[in-house]
Amino acid sequence: MMDKKASSDPHSLENMELEEIASKISDLDKWRKIFSCHGLEISHTTHQKCQDHKSEDDKEDAAAASQMTNPLKQSRFPSNILHSIPKALIVSSNIGGRPISLEMAVGLRRMLFGSTYQVFSYEWKRAYFRFHEPYTDLAYALETDKGGAVAVQMAVQVNIIKYLLFVQNKEENMHLQSLCEISQKEQEKALVAALADILWVAGEGQKATVCLVTSDTYFTPSIDYKADHFTERVQLFDFFEKETAQQFLCDHIHCLNCEGSHGVILFLYSLLFSRTFERLQKDLDCTTTHLLQCRLGSFICRQAILNIILTGRACPQVFNGFQKLDAEGNVQKQLHGVLSRSEVGYLHWSKEELEHYRFPQVGSMLKTPKLPVWLCNISGTYSVLFSTNRLLLSDWKMEHLFDLYFYNGQPSQKTTVHLTVDTHSHHWEENHREEDGDAEKRFPSVEMAIRTKWEGAAINWNGVVPFF
Questions:
Q1: Distance, CA of 275 to CA of 206 (rounded, Å)
Q2: 315 with 337: CB under 8 angstroms?
Q3: To the nearest 10°, the Cα dihedral for 196, 202, 207, 212?
Q4: SS in 3 state form for 41-105?
Q5: Could you tell me which of 344, 345, 280 has the C-alpha nearest to residue 316?
Q6: Are 375 and 345 contacting, i.e. CB atoms less than 8 angstroms apart?
Q7: pLDDT tens digits for 228-239?
Q8: Fewer Cβ within 10 Å of end Cβ, the chain: N or C?
Q9: Are 111 and 98 in contact (CB under 8 A)?
C-alpha cells in the first residue's frame, strides 16, 4: 500500500509512472530481440493484430481474476490459472496451406482427449523445443519443463541424438565432446532433421504434414466444440518429398522453437495429420481410444504417442507383434505391439508397477533398436540413454564392457552422466549379498532400467553420486 508521502508527492507519482512505462518498453524490447533473431520485426500491422485480440485476452484475464476472488468459482485445477499463457507466433495466411476445418479440429480433439470439450493446459501451451546454450556441456539437449509435454520433448530428443551421432556422420564414431561443441545453427539443423524424419516415417514415407498458426480464424466453433483461440487458426502444409518438408521446417523453425510458439502442440498436430486419423484408428486397440490421459489435473501421453514418435506407428503396446487378451467370459481381444525393429529404442522401469504385477514387458524390437539410443520411462519420468558406438548393438562382443550416457531433462542436471556398464566380469549383486533388504530398493532406478536390457550388469557411475 502506498504511504501518504508517496501519494501526495507528484514527483513520486511521476517516477512510478516512468518506471511502469520503462517496464513495458523493456518487455517490448525483449520481444523485438526474439523477432529480430529470426529476421522479423514488430510492425504496425502486428501491433494492430495484438490490439484486435486484446478484448479476448481481457476476458480471459477477467475470468482468472474472478476465480481468484471468488473461492466458489475456483477451478478444480488451479495450476491452469495465475499465469499469462503466451500467444502463438503466427505466419501469414497467404503462404499456401490448407485451412483447418471444424471437422478436422473435432477429429483432433477426439483423437487426443476423447472429447471435444477438453483443451490443452497451460503447461502444454507454453511448451516448445528449446536447447541449452550452444557450446556447453548440454548443447545437444533440449530443456524441459513440467507437465505432459515433457514426454514428447524427450522422445524428440532421442531423434536429435540419433541425427547428431549417426545420421549426420555415417562413417566413424563421434565422441561425446562433439555434442557439446555445436552452435545454435547446428542445434536448429538437428531439430529440423529430427522433426522431419519423425513426420515422414509417420506418413509411411509418402507424405508429411506441418501445422502452423496463422492470423486468420477458419471456422466458427459449434455448440459441441470448445474454442481454444489457437486450433481454429491452424493451416496444414502437405509435402510429398521429405527434403521439401525439411526445407519448409527449416524456414519456419521459429514457429516451433521460440517462446510463445506452442511448438510442442503444433508438432503433435503435425504428427497426427501426417499419420492420418484412418491409420491411427487401425494402430490403436481396445486398451486405447485416445492419446492423452488426464491424471491429477494434467494431460499425460499414453504409450501410443511415444511409439508413433519412436517407430512411426501409434501402437499402444511395447511388446513385439500382436497378442491376445483373455477377458472374463473367454472373449479374446487383440492387442497391438511393435511390428518391426525401430531405429531408436525404449526402456521402462517402475518399482510400483512391478510390485502390482502391471510391469510392461518391453519387446526386443524396442529394447534392441538399430542404433544405441533409448527413450527411458523410469517411474513415469522420461530420460535418455545413449552410446556413441554405432556398432554396440550389432556385435555382441562390444556388450561386455561399454559406456552409456544419461540425460534426464531436469534443470538440476548440468552435465551428461557417464556410466560404464559391465555385463561380463561379475553379477551386479555379488558385492551386495551381505546387505539386507530388497536389492531393487537399494539401487538407483536408472540402473534397474538398464538391467531390463542387460540382465545382471554392474554399473559404474565414474565418480558421480548415483541418483534417479
A1: 10
A2: yes
A3: -60
A4: CCCHHHHHHHHHCHHHHHHHHHHHHHHHHCHHHCCCCHHHCCCCCCCCCCECCCCCCEECCHHHH
A5: 280
A6: yes
A7: 989 999 999 999
A8: N
A9: no
The answer to whether the beta carbons of residues 405 and 176 sit under 8 Å apart is yes
CA-to-CA distance for 37 and 45, rounded, in angstroms?
A: 19
Cell numbers at residue 43, please? Answer: 510492425
State how far Cα 105 lies from the chain centre.
Answer: 21
Of the candidates 170, 210, 163, 166, the residue with the CA atom closest to the CA atom of residue 186: 163
C-alpha cell at 160: 536429435
Task: Return the half-sphere exposure (C-beta side, CA atoms, 13 A cut-off) of residue 307.
Answer: 28
Secondary structure (3-state) at 401? strand
Rounded CA-CA distance 466/420 in Å is 13
pLDDT in tens, 9-22: 444 444 444 445 44
> Closest by alpha carbon to 406, among 415, 397, 393?
415
- Locate 431 and state its grid cell: 558385492
d(CA 337, CA 294): 23
Instruction: Return the pLDDT at 271.
Output: 98
The Cα-based distances of 29 to 20, 24, 59, 126, 184 in angstroms read: 14, 9, 26, 20, 21
**Cα–Cα distance list, 135 to 139, 141, 181, 184, 253 (Å):** 6, 11, 5, 9, 20
Please state, in angstroms and rounded to a whole number, the distance separating the CA atoms of residues 429 and 227.
Answer: 56
Overall pTM > 0.70: yes
Which residue did the predictor score with more confidence, 459 or 66?
459
Integer Cα distance of 461 and 421 in angstroms = 9
- Grouping H, G, I as helix, E, B as strand and the rest as coil, residue 374 is strand
Place of cell 511395447: 318
Q: Could you give the residue ranges of the DSSP H alpha helices within 224-302?
A: 242-251, 254-257, 263-275, 277-283
Bigger pLDDT: 173 vs 74: 173
